[in-house]
Design a protein that fits this description.
154 residues, mainly alpha, two-stranded antiparallel sheet, 61% helix
């Protein structure tokens, strides 16, 4: 039963995460909470299927370190880009009163990029931590069925 619940919870957790990113508690978004929601569904998958089963069911888990680094870089760029324009860090772009591009009701401005970066960072870091808790002898980002050092390959 736990396996089926883990499989069924994954989709709704992504929908809730997308909603949290688009409109968070203060009209900007909440990338951290969205990341935690997705990682909770991932943790349930790890509990239900084990480390190797979770990585077979969700192959992107092998790329968690890359997600973390990419999210960190995106958040830093979105936060500190205004410094290049002579403005304080985390200034909104486009500025107040300027036209903001939209996709549906989603307004595309720098806080959204920052929230997506935080989301990717949280998902990446917490997934690496889950991986190490589920299989402490393996290295994050490597498939569980491959050897981990050159000595084992010979």
């Amino acid at each position: 039963m736990l396996r089926e619940v883990a499989r069924l919870v994954w989709g709704p957790s992504l929908v809730v995460a997308a909603d949290l990113i688009v409109k968070g508690y203060n009209e900007v978004g909440d990338g951290f909470a969205a990341g935690v929601v997705v990682v909770l569904a991932t943790a349930l998958t790890y509990v239900a299927l084990g480390a190797s089963g979770a990585e077979r069911a969700l192959p992107f888990l092998r790329h968690a370190p890359k997600l973390a680094v990419g999210g960190l870089l995106l958040a830093l760029v979105a936060g500190f880009f205004p410094l290049l324009l002579g403005e304080p860090p985390f200034s909104h772009r486009p500025g107040p009163g300027a036209h903001v591009a939209t996709v549906g009701s989603l307004e595309l401005f720098t806080p959204v990029l920052f929230d997506v970066g935080v989301f990717l960072l949280v998902v990446g870091v917490l997934t690496v931590m889950l991986h190490h808790l589920a299989d402490p002898d393996s290295e994050a980002g490597t498939p569980l069925d491959e050897p981990h050092d050159a000595g084992e390959r010979a």
